[in-house]
Amino acid sequence: MSVNMKTTMKTEKKRILAVDDQASNTRLLKLYLERTNDYVVREVNDAKAALSAAEEFQPHLILLDVMMPGMDGGELAACFQASPKLKGVPIVFLTAAVTKREVTAGGGQVGGHPFLAKPVVLSEVLACLKHHLGG
User: Fold this and answer.
1) CB neighbours of 109 closer than 8 A, spacing ≥ 6?
2) pLDDT tens string 118-127
3) What is the value of pTM for the model shown?
4) Neighbouring C-beta atoms of residue 33, cutoff 10 Å
């Protein structure tokens, strides 16, 4: 008696919140990640709107730009972690402020959060998501 594993192991798509003031960056991440059929991506291009969007969307992981007008990624990460609804959600920073060499030298982490240097390599983003979300 053969059972098709794909039909019996239907898994929920992981919700990813992409926060970056540059809409082209979040659009690229959304298109690429949703094409894998493993993720649902919500884009937020205004740091001040990101906290309420995150609380409503309940992401499994947040991809967060560091340098944004109004509120930087570090401040926003602190807001996410202070929220009872979001405090356990992993945050991965995306930044042009460090080079890929600096990210590697720091073990891929700054301030206890993983970092990916911009311009991001989409395969690296995917590998990072798989590492932090399992699978």
Assistant:
1) 115
2) 888 899 999 9
3) 0.85
4) 22
**DSSP per-residue letters across 57-78:** H--SEEEEES--SSS-HHHHHH
Residue 63 and residue 29 in contact, taking contact as beta carbons nearer than 8 Å: yes
Within-domain flag for 4: no
- β-sheet bridge partners, residue 94: 65, 116
* Nearest in space to 19 (alpha carbons), one of 69, 57, 73: 73
Rounded to whole angstroms, how far apart are CA atoms 116 and 95?
Answer: 7
How wide is the angle at C-alpha 53 spanned by C-alphas 87 and 134, nearest 5°? 50
What is the residue range of 113's domain? 14-128
- How many CA atoms lie less than 13 Å away from 92 in the CB half-sphere? 24
Provide the residue type at 93 as one letter: F
pLDDT one-digit tens code per residue, 96-114: 766 566 656 656 665 677 8
Tokens 């992401």 correspond to 59
- In the chain, how many domains are there? 1
